[in-house]
Amino acid sequence: MNRKIWGLSLVVFSLLFASCSKKEDFSNFDDETVVIVDDIVSALVVRASSLRNQEIKFTILDEDGNDVTENATFYVDGEAIEGDSFSSAEIGNFEVYGEYDFEGTLVTTDTEAFSVIIPKRKIVIEDYTGAWCGYCPRISAAIEAVHDETDDIAVVAIHNDDDMALPFEENLRETFEVFGFPSGRINRTQNWGNPHPPEDVVDIAGLDTNSAISIQSQLSGNNLAVKVGVVSENDLTSMKLVLYLVEDGVLSEQVNYFDQDPSSPYYEMGNPIIDFVNN
């Protein structure tokens, strides 16, 4: 199926060491835990996931929200560390707690877990398509075959000359030398040629990588706020960040040249296919 694009922005960015989530998708930024010790409320703040050799900062807030980190001692896996930060060249699971003096009382926070991980690579498939294009369901079928093998993909349909087309579509085709329909691109630059073998994607999806992206979004009425962060073991200051805003479940008629092809999943589905689901 196809995925409708609602917006695209190309943003030159400087490296942002954003906080990471408990999962490898880095979807959340901060993991804050509040503990009560002898009626003193303390908050130990630590990222749940970080990359190898990335600085991991620890913060303690007292019951009034004051930062008391400067006066605290932190223990990682039971060993006191110098300062309020930690890094590891090796992946693994760790535990941290902190201690500080509050008016003569030693306050010990709860022990919190965090991880040092290697992110997994997610592959972008861009499907250059159009509702008028009778051969375009071919790539839709190939994408479904890839989905059967891996979830480590992100799919974007870039429509031409139909109700889902956007003005910058022609610029994208010219920039990336897309000359016909359907056309597939893997990670923007690699041509995914007919018959669009799933292994071209599956063989590289989910492999270890040295960079990760975090994204948080919040919808308030008609306003969508998106916060994006990037972490990497390499210097990315010369790179660009591409943001897609997409919509699933868009229904349209789709010209279907495979209506009489028994080998196609779109066999006898009509030409055109009524209420073709664009995802």
Description:
By secondary structure, the chain is mainly beta. It has 2 domains: 4-14 and 120-278, Glutaredoxin, CATH 3.40.30; 32-117, Immunoglobulin-like (Sandwich), CATH 2.60.40. It is built from 3 helices and 20 strands. The strands form 6 sheets. Strands 4, 6, 7, 9, 10 and 11 form a 6-stranded mixed beta sheet that branches. A 4-stranded antiparallel beta sheet has the order 2-3-5-8, with no helix packed on it. Strands 13-12-14-15 form a 4-stranded mixed beta sheet, covered by helices on one side. Strand 9 and strand 10 (105-108) form a beta hairpin.
Q: What is the β-strand count?
A: 20
The tally of domains stands at 2
Low-pLDDT parts are 3-38
Secondary structure: helix percent: under 10%
| Helical segment count | 3
CATH superfamily of the largest domain: Glutaredoxin
The overall average pLDDT, rounded, is 86
Write down the CATH topology of the largest domain: Glutaredoxin
CATH class of the largest domain: Alpha Beta
Our Rg estimate from Cα atoms comes to 24 Å
CATH architectural label of the largest domain: 3-Layer(aba) Sandwich
Pick out its properties.
six-stranded mixed beta sheet; disordered N terminus; Glutaredoxin; Immunoglobulin-like; four-stranded antiparallel beta sheet; 2 domains; 20 strands
